[in-house]
Specification:
2 copies of one chain form a homodimer. By secondary structure, the first copy, chain A, is an alpha+beta fold. Helix content of chain A is 54%, strand content 6%. Chain A has 9 helices and 4 strands; from the N terminus they run βαβαββααααααα. A 4-stranded mixed beta sheet of chain A has the order 2-1-3-4, covered by helices on one side. In chain A, α1 links the parallel β1 and β2. In chain A, α3 packs antiparallel against α4 and α4 packs antiparallel against α5.
Amino acid sequence: MRYELYYWAGIQGRGEFVRLALEEAGAEYLDVARQAGGEEQMMRLLGRPSVEHLPFAPPFLKAGELIIAQTANILLYLGPHHGLAPADEAGRLWVHQLQLTIADFVVEAHDTHHPIASGLYYEDQKKEAKRRTADFLKNRAPKYFGYFEEVLVRSGGKHLAGRRLTYADLSLFQIVAGMRYAFPKAMAKHEKKLPRAVALHDLVAKRPRIAAYLASERRIPFNEYGIFRHYKELDA
Amino acid sequence: MRYELYYWAGIQGRGEFVRLALEEAGAEYLDVARQAGGEEQMMRLLGRPSVEHLPFAPPFLKAGELIIAQTANILLYLGPHHGLAPADEAGRLWVHQLQLTIADFVVEAHDTHHPIASGLYYEDQKKEAKRRTADFLKNRAPKYFGYFEEVLVRSGGKHLAGRRLTYADLSLFQIVAGMRYAFPKAMAKHEKKLPRAVALHDLVAKRPRIAAYLASERRIPFNEYGIFRHYKELDA
């Protein structure tokens, strides 16, 4: 079965967490919106009255007859099908719990540059963005990263859930990469306290399929349209 | 088995979505933090190095040996164990997808009064709160509610996933109730476009176990410490 991933063509965004899982799994997939006419095809699908399980927003994944939306939910589906999650209930819930905490982090990272409205330009909420980012870098990001570092201390392996890689590890890799892009100064300082998270980032980056993906054109570069944006004035 | 729910004692907050599911299920549970010394007990548990699956934050549920955190993840666990989610994979993913969209709504509803930092007082971000709330009431809340109304149109029943109640319905009830409390003026206008969501709210409120719960002291009243807060100046 060839999956179809539907997500905005120009950004990593939330779609990237799904792309990383599909790439690590070696799954066959079409990144629909990046094909000619693909974004229109995505919008048509979202507008079709016959879609039974309507997504609120991209990303969503077509897997045979299934249409699955919400990033963490897509990973919940892919995990057991591709050996990217434990098979038992307790392990599955634990990895999903980690993913949902990463999802919370993603919202907060996004809202650093859009604290007032996602529909407004950054330039229209720059003052508020400075205030929100200052708090994010001082309090929130360290709290999340400290948490994941502690999880790695307890995990009994190099991965969040122990010895085996799960989709949550791929997502933590993306968080570290994104934070380095958006806030290079703040992250350089902060990373010193995160030896395990950084080691996990490096481990993921070296996995053959991920390394090949990162070096390919399929990996969209970070830019100022996605979740992790670099605005010099925000990086304290 | 008696569940133990760990959540802040003074607010409905995110814990309420779990409480509603436990109440509808008729499950035996202890609301730990609301007992004498309960919040200290919760914090001690969070600080204990022996906890294998460490929660990032409350709410979390103790189910036998399992400790499960993240609201939507707790419901993912409770759903199939108490007939509050479909048994098949497609149905389970669909209800979870709806719940994750509700979770996104909850973040945005919270951030109306805390657009800059959850660690600061509302009074310290009042100006920003006004801007964010104006956008939330004009654009975001209608987008979410319009989505759930459309899901109800397509569901083939009175509930989000069809004829049978799921935990997502209980959560949508809570969203409607919360929005009525926080923004009575804006909601009164907006509700006219949401006949199905309002009907579902009423249906849930009348379910015997939910009705008994809402009338009991176990239901903490809405207040200005939780997610849905009423500040007259924000209700346009």
